Amino acid sequence: MEPLRTSDPARLAGYRLLGRLGAGGMGVVYLARSAGGTLVALKVIQAEYAEDAEFRERFRREADTARRMTSPWVASLVDADPGAAQPWLATTFVPGPSLGEAVAAYGPLPVPSLRVLGARLAEALRELHAAGLVHRDVKPGNVLLALDGPRLIDFGVARDPEDPALTSTGVVVGTPGFLPPEQARGGRDPGPAGDVFSLGCVLAFAATGRPPFGTGSIDALLYRTVHDAPDLEGVPEELAEVVGGCLEKDPELRPTAEALSEALTPAPPSSSSSASPSASSPDPREALRVVRPSAPVEDRVPGDEAWLPEPLVRLIAERSAAGLALPSIDDTEVDPASADPASAGTAPADTTADAEPASRAVGRRRFLLLTGGAAVVTAGGGLAAWAAFSRDGENDDPTPTVTGPVHTLGLHADLTGDQKAVGRAQEQGLRLAVDEFNSRADRSFTLAVKTVDDGGDPARAADVAAKLVADRSVLAVIGPTTDATALASLATYDAASLPLIAVSPGATVLTVTGSRSFLHSRVPDTVLPFYLDAYLRGTAKSRTVGIVDDRAADAYAWEISSTLAKILRDARQPNVPKVVSALRTDFGPTLDALLDGGADSVVFAGYHDRAALLARELTSRDFPGARAAAQGVLDARFLSAAGDAADGWAIVAPVMDAAVAPEAKAFTAAYRKRFGAEPERYAVETYDVAQLAIQGMRTLAAGRRTRQNLTTALRSATYKGISRNLAFDRTTGALVIDGSGVYLWKVAGGRFAYQGVASYQV
After folding, report:
1. H helix or E strand, kind and range, residue 322
2. Strand partners, 132
3. d(Cα 486, Cα 465) in Å, to the nearest integer?
4. Which of 666, 679, 671, 647 is nearest to 745 (CA)?
5. Which CATH superfamily is domain 99-265 in?
6. Given this model, what pLDDT does residue 188 score?
7. Number of CB atoms found within 10 A of residue 18's CB
């Protein structure tokens, strides 16, 4: 729970607000206390959505649906007013975590917990279905865990499957990865069997810690849901058949919610046969009553144990105590005598925690007006400014003579994590380009470099990006290093209109997010299969291509494997696709399936570590055919893990070996002189992107060098680089594909041997 913000009211609809339980694009959920002391979860809709008649009607339906639910396994409705100026509804407060939060923090649930979870949620769905309604969004985030059992929440999209109101044709409602195939196709809305499928996904997640159809882009999840078998490795054997039945593609083959509840409910102890008839139908929550964790084992009797693991029991107890202990909040009072006379007649001052004092804010605004937002330095202060803008104060670059204003190119990279070699190469490529520009006598401004390190951790990426955003001298940023960190930080850069140019990430989703400031300078992953196809069918003369989609590589693997399979289907070329669970380390059965299908070549869609497992399996079978992969395998760790089995593998990747490429001869010489070493992979690609950014800055007049103007200039620019030609779609920032920028590598003698430009035509 988060504290209330200064913009939040102290009370609403007769409830005292205590804190924020969550917030989304359409509203806020508060923890609130009624006049009688009852804690509730108060859901309030934002004013702009309240003005939308269709949205208000949808909210009214949510409240009506919640009113009809009497199941103990649903968070019951306390009160609601869909007709209020700000529509709201209050449900009983469940102090426990969501299932998603619990599994992320404490891991998969044990079998007894899974049985209770599934049986109780199935009972909730049974009542919903009996009322003629379908939930349509059963997922871990909509399941709360309480001491006496789970609760199903959020009926915002629940409705009668025969009612077409408020639904558009082809619109997918629900959460990809947890919705049924019939819903994923975007056609007719699912019936009760769709909720059962979603519950099967939830149980698989609770049992294994991962969704049964993986994670990644929406398109990937929808495709797998419709076409792929679920990944149920790790689901306990005694539950695998039940969960698998829920995940049947054909809705007619799935159990009903009632049958599922019966299948998951363990038989009562034999001693219960002597119970009186009046005791045969107790409140189902009685079977889940909890004793103190410290109670002696000998004092416990069947039914006394908690249904959840002890760490979760403690967490729920702590949250319950914290909620009850929250004090009331007094209404805010403003002393008119303390008001700033200068602000009389103006709007109220910003009182948020991070607002600047008025005098400081005025001074800062005056400074920005005087400097035009740029860091203007005099000859006397230039060296200090240069040091401040170089690597957060560490000046290891040659010190230039400062000419004109100082503008900064930022580098957001993994400099200490799993991809630190790539991050360091990108830093050196950027610094070389900046050095060359600052050595020009005719330049009208001076460039600095500022690097930030996220360690390859997506959780750190947004905070790290904020450091570059906060530095107003930074006009463009190169990076981040990986798909995950790029996705995690993209919104931060976009909100500041700070151009972000990706060199090494390849996920196609980066260019379809609607970003206004992103530029994708790398050939995306979905294009690389065209080069794999050309190598396999052209160079290797393969007749039947075996494709291994490794779930451990998630969206990356899907983009490679599904695109290649489509290319081969369109060419009427036989292929044998095989999906491998992320938990499987024995690739023998996978290879058996490929060989049984007649595969005479193998493409691995995944990363270096598991590619090594497949490589060793292929060598042990004396597989004679071609073996290929994309850039995820172009990693020194593949060579060390696979050993001799790596020899012969072909890899297509959007990265050049500048040390041997003739067209990079001048770059390599300058790199050796500057850093005393051979250029690493992605150094020349970053050098090209830096030159593009410098070119864009030079086209803008001094007073027009702003982040937004630079984004426009870059998206309109063309640049013939050493490693690839750079031009972008002006709307999406996607790279214009012209056949340049992809190279072929082969493993020979235990090392990656550069083969030159890859072909994309068979």
Report:
1. helix 310-325
2. none
3. 10
4. 647
5. Transferase(Phosphotransferase) domain 1 (1.10.510.10)
6. 60
7. 21
Q: Which amino acid is at 15?
A: Y
Q: Which structure tokens are listed for 316? A: 């729920």
Q: Would you give the DSSP letter of residue 32?
A: E
Coil, strand or helix at 570? helix
pLDDT at res. 416: 95
For residue 557, count other CB atoms closer than 10 A to its CB: 29
Q: Taking Cα atoms as reference points, which of 288, 111, 129, 269 lies closest to residue 196?
A: 129
Q: Which residue has the tokens 């209330």?
A: 4
In this structure, the strands spanning 751-757 and 743-748 are antiparallel
Integer angstrom CA distances of residue 237 from 179, 241, 468: 24, 8, 50
Q: Is the CATH code 3.40.50.2020 the one for domain 11-92?
A: no
275-289: b or e for each residue (b if 16 or more CB lie within 10 Å)?
Answer: eeeeeeeeebeebbe
* Below-50 pLDDT ranges, the chain: 162-172, 269-304, 329-398
Distance CA 290, CA 308 (A): 9
Whole-number pLDDT of residue 373: 32
Q: What is the DSSP string of 66-105?
A: HHH---TTB--EEEEETTSSS-EEEEE---SPBHHHHHHH
Residue appearing with tokens 């049985």: 115
Instruction: Tell me, yes or no, if 137 is annotated catalytic.
Output: yes
Q: Is 697 exposed, middle or buried (0-12, 13-18, 19+ CB in 10 A)?
A: buried
List, for residues 528-550, the tens digit of each pLDDT value. 999 999 999 999 999 999 999 99
pLDDT on residue 506: 94
Residue 327, pLDDT score: 56
- For 503-660, strand residue ranges (E) read 518-520, 545-550, 575-580, 601-605, 626-629, 650-653
For 89-138, write each residue's pLDDT tens digit.
Answer: 888 888 889 999 999 889 999 999 999 999 999 999 998 898 888 888 89
Return the SS3 of 576: strand
Q: Find out whether 193 and 99 touch, Cβ atoms under 8 Å.
A: no
Distance CA 282, CA 348 (A): 57
Output the six-digit token pair for 429: 């490529």
Examine domains 99-265 and 528-653+745-757 and report if their fold is the same: no
Q: How far apart are alpha carbons 533 and 742 in whole angstroms?
A: 13
Domain positions in the chain: 11-92, 99-265, 382-523+661-731, 528-653+745-757
Fold for domain 382-523+661-731?
Answer: Rossmann fold (3.40.50)
CB 675 within 8 A of CB 464: no
420-438 and 683-698 helices, crossing angle to 10°:
40
Rounded to 5°, angle at Cα 423 from 417 and 426? 180
Contacts of 662 (CB under 8 A, 6+ apart): none
Burial 162-198 (b: 16+ CB within 10 A, else e): eeeeeeeeeeebbbbbbbbbbbbeeeebbbbbbbbbb
Distance CA 644, CA 615 (A): 9
Instruction: Check residue 4 and give its pLDDT.
Output: 85
**Cα–Cα distance between 696 and 688 in angstroms, integer?**
13
**CATH superfamily, domain at 528-653+745-757:** Response regulator (3.40.50.2300)
- Is residue 519 within 8 A of residue 486, CB to CB? The reply is no
Q: Residue 341 burial by CB count (10 A; 0-12/13-18/19+): exposed, middle or buried?
A: exposed
Selecting among 137, 454, 494, 635, the annotated active-site residue is 137
Coil, strand or helix at 244: helix
